[in-house]
Design goal:
Helix content: 25-40%
Strand content: 5-15%
Structural class: alpha+beta
Radius of gyration: 32 Å
Number of helices: 24
Number of domains: 3
């Protein structure tokens, strides 16, 4: 009984500290500067990059164990030396956790980092001390030494069956470098013989935790002991600014903590929590007598649902631990996804698509009626369906017990789940190949949760969760996450909303912030008309490239009259830019049709800032401004960009190919355009592109379905990520980026685009290839529009003979819309 109680208190004391064990970001920077340490020095000591320290001090990311504890100890030590300028609750928590202590009432910091494990083991295995001699004082018992326990890659402690602690001999469920050990300072005096204390761990860790091999090693002392025969190093006095040219004494090099967690660590953690992977495709075995499941890598699962009901499938998915790990420390793990093939659908008694509302799945309704026998069976078994019901993308969940989420998502291709919404799945794809395709998307982006747009928006929230657990004096509550938007949605400003929005019903004509991608063309000059070809260049995932590090709103709008323009404040500004002259051979960057503005209009921060870059001195008449902002989409940009680059590399186009061999790059891109390559990878590439584009579009989603009355609210308005200003800022930034590149292109090559559709620009060319317009007179390639696979760089879109282009212009048709061979509209439009 007592052993169980000690194990319980160990687990309670080992509970990870909330984010309040760190000071606010501004205080982190102040303490580092007060100690006269540079970001480079701190990054070197923590075995990380300077950029990581910059993000910690900006509050855009948070350190994870084991670096988190060492970083807290560093800040707490400096706080004891230089004081704090904020409530010092975080310092008290750091002291309570044993990360820093004071002795004898002094403010001298005493690092509480664990000693090396070999020294602890040696002390535990040393023979018992001799009995005290009469008349001599008994030696004092050594103080319990704090120990860094093994941790999983997600920061949780490695747990196994109780075994004798190597320090005290009492049972412990924790491990330090694989050996049983208690949390530092909580060992009881041992009554067990030395032989018991020395015995190795008899039981391997159980399946509830990842293997100890993936755990972080025990932390080493931060300061090395002096060599034998040398004088002990004096303690470092309070830092003072050194004289110019002098070298300042530093502490002895800190023992570097465990390496930062990388993709391999997360994969190991996921393998332990979700050994079956994120999803499975369910089919009927060739014998027709049983079901078979294919996992995300295309292999067959060792088991499959034994029953023939939908609830059997759900319970099988949970028992086999399908799912995906969270993408943010304050986020949630991804739910399991089960894809039902047509044969599996029939085997489970579910109808095919049709028109009979009583027998079939009717696309117009979007879900089976609540009176359907399968829906009733699901509810009878204690499961529930969301408001989307049992449709192409369905969620089946059970009321959580003890905080454990139980939810499985279904995908039904026979009901149109993968034939629209950005998905371009090849016909007659084998179940194992479909599993590999969706598994690849899940690995590089997110487990599919609907259309690519829905999945992209879910990715934003997964990387920027709105809330986190906060410990208070009365218990745990919900608090905001730095850099995220709040959980509660707020309305946009009246100029930003679409016409059917309630705030737009009394809006004056011309009072709307118009933000759309370019659809522009002009007449040809005589020199352009004499060229034999027209060549189109397309920007790779332009919206994705524009979202990186872009300051976006994190709070609601505030209305101001005659505000002073600040490019750091995202918002909508009423400004007159009609007096600004721009190159007439290029479209105006301030209107969607490329024409010159005619008077005051509403513009986003991105366009007003660009007008200043072009020489304007605008004075806004009004503004709807957001005074809380940050790079909200930056994690989404980085995650999706890497997934895009990984997919291109899998198709044979590495990141540097265009720089080393532009001809080979153009040839391989042409092969991809022609559909040559792994069909699954090609489908993933299309899905990632549509995810990037669709995510931005969902930020201004309009009402769907029939029977809507303008002026009524619709469901999307209650979503925290519904904010048309975010969409406007991304699109306007992409427009500004392209206009800036077109200006440089004209300066470097003398060529002007005469037609643009979104991010595709068309030029008159002496030849039919991209290199014919990108090559400068000196034979080198221009960098104004740079060839490459990375988002923001360009690829060859297509070329047409100039006589065809002249006919299009005569019909007032935008040639950029038909520049591809055969007149196909750009896939990136």
């Amino acid at each position: 009984m007592s052993d169980d109680l000690f194990a319980s208190i160990d687990a309670l004391l080992a509970r990870p500290k909330p984010v309040e064990d760190l000071p606010v970001p501004a205080e982190r920077e102040r303490l580092r500067k007060a100690g006269e340490y540079t970001q480079e020095e701190l990054a070197t000591a923590l075995r990380t990059r300077r950029e990581t320290i910059v993000r910690w001090e900006a509050g855009t990311t948070e350190p994870r164990p084991p670096k988190r504890e060492v970083y807290i100890a560093f800040l707490a030590t400096l706080a004891l030396q230089h004081g704090t300028v904020e409530p010092s609750e975080w310092l008290r928590l750091a002291q309570t956790a044993g990360l820093v202590r004071t002795t004898g009432g002094s403010r001298t910091p005493q690092p509480a980092v664990a000693p090396a494990l070999p020294a602890v083991l040696a002390a535990a295995e040393a023979p018992a001390a001799p009995a005290p001699v009469a008349g001599q004082p008994a030696p004092s018992a050594p103080a319990a030494q704090p120990v860094m326990l093994d941790q999983n890659p997600d920061g949780s402690l490695v747990m196994a069956r109780p075994a004798p602690c190597v320090q005290c001999g009492q049972p412990s469920v924790y491990r330090a470098q694989g050996h049983p050990m208690h949390l530092g300072g909580f060992c009881r005096p041992s009554t067990a013989p030395a032989a018991v204390r020395q015995q190795p761990d008899p039981v391997a860790p159980t399946a509830v935790a990842p293997p100890a091999a993936s755990a972080a090693p025990v932390a080493q002392p931060r300061q090395a002991a002096p060599a034998a025969g040398s004088a002990a190093a004096p303690s470092r006095p309070a830092p003072s600014r050194p004289a110019a040219g002098s070298s300042r004494a530093r502490k002895a090099p800190a023992k570097k903590p465990a390496a930062a967690q990388g993709p391999a660590d997360w994969e190991q953690a996921a393998a332990a929590r979700f050994p079956a992977g994120p999803l499975a495709v369910l089919d009927v075995a060739p014998s027709g007598r049983s079901l078979v499941a294919y996992l995300a890598d295309g292999t067959q699962a060792p088991t499959a649902p034994s029953g023939r009901t939908l609830t059997d499938v759900v319970e099988w998915a949970l028992e086999n631990r399908l799912g995906s790990p969270r993408l943010h420390r304050h986020g949630k793990d991804g739910d399991a996804l089960v894809v039902l093939t047509d044969t599996a659908l029939a085997e489970l008694g579910l109808p095919a698509m049709g028109r009979d509302e009583k027998k079939d799945f009717v696309p117009r309704l979007g879900q089976l009626p609540k009176t359907h026998k399968t829906v009733k069976a699901v509810e009878k078994a204690g499961w529930q369906l969301t408001q989307r019901g049992l449709g192409p993308w369905a969620r089946i969940y059970r009321t959580p017990e003890d905080g454990k989420r139980q939810c499985v998502q279904l995908c039904v291709p026979a009901w149109g789940a993968l034939t629209s919404g950005g998905w371009n799945i090849p016909d007659s794809l084998a179940p194992q190949d479909l599993a590999r395709l969706l598994g690849t998307y899940a690995k590089r982006v997110l487990t599919p949760r609907g259309s690519t747009s829905v999945s992209g928006l879910e990715l934003v929230t997964a990387l920027r969760p709105p809330t986190r657990a906060v410990r208070t004096e009365t218990g745990w509550t919900s608090g905001p996450v730095d850099g995220s938007r709040p959980k509660e949605a707020f309305d946009a400003a009246p100029p930003e909303v679409p016409d059917m929005h309630p705030l737009a019903q009394n809006r004056e004509p011309g009072g709307e912030l118009v933000t759309e991608a370019w659809d522009w063309h002009r007449n040809l000059t005589d020199q352009e008309a004499a060229a034999p070809f027209a060549v189109g260049l397309d920007v790779n995932t332009a919206f994705l490239a524009a979202a990186g590090r872009l300051a976006l709103p994190l709070s609601g709008p505030v209305h101001e009259l005659n505000p002073t323009f600040d490019p750091k404040i995202p918002g909508s500004w009423l400004v007159d830019l009609s007096h600004l002259d721009t190159n007439p051979l290029l479209p105006s960057p301030f209107t969607a049709d490329g024409t010159r503005p005619t008077g005051p209009a509403w513009y986003s921060t991105a366009k007003v800032a660009y007008a200043i870059e072009l020489g304007a001195r605008p004075q806004p008449l009004e503004g709807w401004l957001r005074h809380e902002s940050g790079p909200y989409l930056d994690p989404w940009h980085k995650h999706l960009r890497q997934g895009y680059l990984d997919t291109m590399a899998a198709l044979g186009i590495p990141l540097t190919l265009a720089d080393t061999d532009p001809v080979a790059y153009l040839e391989k891109m042409e092969a991809i355009k022609a559909g040559q390559g792994d069909p699954a990878e090609l489908a993933v590439l299309t899905a990632i592109k549509q995810t990037a584009k669709g995510t931005i579009g969902k930020m201004r989603e309009r009402p769907r379905g029939h029977g809507y009355t303008p002026g009524e609210r619709w469901a999307a308005l209650d979503r925290p990520t519904w904010d048309p200003l975010m969409r406007a800022l991304v699109i306007d930034t992409a427009t500004v980026n392209l206009h800036r590149k077109l200006r440089r292109m004209a300066a470097h090559t003398g060529l002007h685009a005469f037609a643009i559709l979104s991010d595709c620009a068309v030029f008159a060319s002496p030849g039919p290839g991209a290199l014919d317009i990108l090559t400068k007179p000196d034979g080198t390639l221009t960098t104004s529009l740079r060839l490459g696979v990375s988002p923001g760089l360009v690829k060859f879109e297509g070329s047409r003979p100039m006589p065809e282009i002249v006919e299009m212009l005569a019909d007032d048709t935008n040639p950029a819309r038909h520049i591809k061979t055969g007149g196909i509209v750009s896939a990136d439009e």
